[in-house]
Amino acid sequence: MAAAAAFSLREVLDAFRGCVTEQREVLLEPYLSGWRGLIRFLQSLGTVFSFISKDAVAKVTLLEELCHQHRFVSVQRMVQQELAAGPAALRAQPGSGCRTLLRLHRALRWLQLFLQGLRSGDSRTSVLCTDAYNASLAQHHPWLIRKAATVAFCALPSRDAFLDIMNVGPPEEAVAMLGEAIPYISDVYSITQELFEKNDLLDLP
Ligand code: 1PZ
Questions:
Q1: Interface predicted TM-score (ipTM) over 0.90
Q2: How far is the CA of 74 from the centre of ligand 1 (A)?
Q3: Ligand 1 near 145 CB (within 6 A)
Q4: Region 148-156: what's the mean pLDDT?
Q5: Which of 18, 68, 99, 133 is most exposed, with minimal Cβ within 10 Å?
């Protein structure tokens, strides 16, 4: 089975490489296209994860629309424009780009930790995934979602199968690719984190 439909996680993770400009701005187009790819990958893992991918799709779609509507090019510009009306107005806006991006941003931390674990060689993917989740997203989720997420993680394929469906090549190559990609993801994460922290946006409701 090959060619046309072949989908490799390499291209997805590569999108994050293209996010950061020389001025250290985070470009929204490659950011959201990276997320689109991750979601496709998640969808290929089975319907147990649908409740997660549905939420991610809703958030990416909203951000794509906002980018289109307001011509936000980078995360920095979006924050600047949305904050122009004042912090109180932004906090009162349930559909803001900032609060929506913050959710994906927290999930990016999960991704970073999970990929690091996968790379480390631990074969228990569901444990890796749960640990990464508990150290990141879990603190922002209510009990019911934490419970559902933890149950879904048990359905994750084994490390070997996981590396295989990443479609990057033999396991060693997949691990090497992770080693290349993780620093880019970490970079995007820390720039965004710093920006949100500086603007006091890390707890946007
Ligand atoms: C490979 C295994 C995938 C594990 C993914 C780990 C993330 C688990 C997240 C569980 C989210 C459950 C669904 C709904 C969550 C929402 O309540 C929250 C808060 O949003 P709000 O309600 O405030 O609008 N949504 C999020 O935290 C965003 C979650 C995005 C998760 C994207 C994961 C993409 C994984 C790619 C895998 C390669």
A1: yes
A2: 22
A3: yes
A4: 97
A5: 68
